Amino acid sequence: xxxxxxxxxxxxxxxxxxxxxxxxxxxxxxxxxxxxxxxxxxxxxxxxxxxxxxxxxxxxxxxxxxxxxxxxxxxxxxxxxxxxxxxxxxxxxxxxxxxxxxxxxxxxxxxxxxxxxxxxxxxxxxxxxxxxxxxxxxxxxxxxxxxxxxxxxxxxxxxxxxxxxxxxxxxxxxxxxxxxxxxxxxxxxxxxxxxxxxxxxxxxxxxxxxxxxxxx
Length: 216
Ligand code: G3P
Hints:
Elements: E1 2-6, H1 10-17, E2 24-26, H2 29-35, H3 39-49, E3 54-57, H4 63-76, E4 80-85, H5 88-100, E5 104-109, H6 112-120, E6 125-128, H7 130-135, H8 140-154, E7 159-162, H9 168-177, E8 181-184, H10 186-192, H11 196-209
Parallel strand pairs: 1-2, 1-8, 2-3, 3-4, 4-5, 5-6, 6-7, 7-8
Helix pairs in contact: 1-3, 4-5, 6-8, 8-9
Bound molecules: SN-glycerol-3-phosphate (G3P).
């Protein structure tokens, strides 16, 4: 399973990249707004740090506007994947991008039928938002399982990108379900390695090591 980081903060991206397990980046308008920097500058900075798929989202809501922004974003760098919301106009724009050879990440997916439509339009990635479904007492990971099954049933090569990840168990479940990618906030990436028994075990090893006689 590929690990993307879900942030527009370049320091967080650098930090995650230094672990050697980072495959790509996803951003959205809210994450870009948090940086306080202009959109294009943020994307150019990220492109310079990570050599992998980097999702940048359109903000137009009409077909022509989405296609125009998709073209502009993909022109910044070949690694840019254009993130498009799964609306009626968005679906048309995804189909258009597919024809133009522009990879897309279809976002704000909350239902398996939306995922099926995105795959039929040729999306590179589908982003089910698991945390936001959990927030309204739905089972976010069940959506991932349904999408996985539908895509496997028909051999779609659209990648299942688990988004709105809130905790390490989302990542475990994503991997068990065969998701292709999990996009994970920096805070959760930091939690993935942590285990109290690892800390206790290491402390004991180092303590015992002090008792080993030193050679002359
Ligand atoms: O990148 C989109 C998605 O991951 C947003 O997550 O936590 O705002 O629901 P969240």
